[in-house]
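Tutorial, part two.
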Amino acid sequence: MEQQMYRGVRKRSTKTFCGLPIIDVALGPDPENNEIRGHAHGIIAIGDMAKGWIAIGGLARGGLAIGGVALGAVSVGGFSLGLLALGGLAIGGIAVGGGAIGLVAIGGGAFGYYALGGGAFGKHVISGMQHSPEAIDFFSRWFPFLR
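Running the prediction step on this input gives:
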């Protein structure tokens, strides 16, 4: 019996900007090109592995990255690394997540210069055990919705 391989989705816009397709979608395998995972690269990239100004995928890299592993200026994902990182484990300048590591960290476990969370550690902290006056002032000024 011959096994039939599933073919993924490949869509790429013909219009480009700065040499990149406006939209590139690459999901699943592509047996013709011997790809197990889709590699999307465009202004808006959606794929198993996505790289673009806006990237959405299992591994997303870009200005705005959304995915299981997200790396970008603004990143949202299970593991998130960026200037503004939101995710299960977030590492960045401003990190928000279950585990957050950053200059400003907000999360269940937060490690940062300014840290806010159930278990928060850093120079200026708001946690269940500690309320630093400078941290209270900082978070009240920059994140008033957290009151």
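The longest strand covers residues 39-116. In part three we will examine how such features are distributed along the chain.
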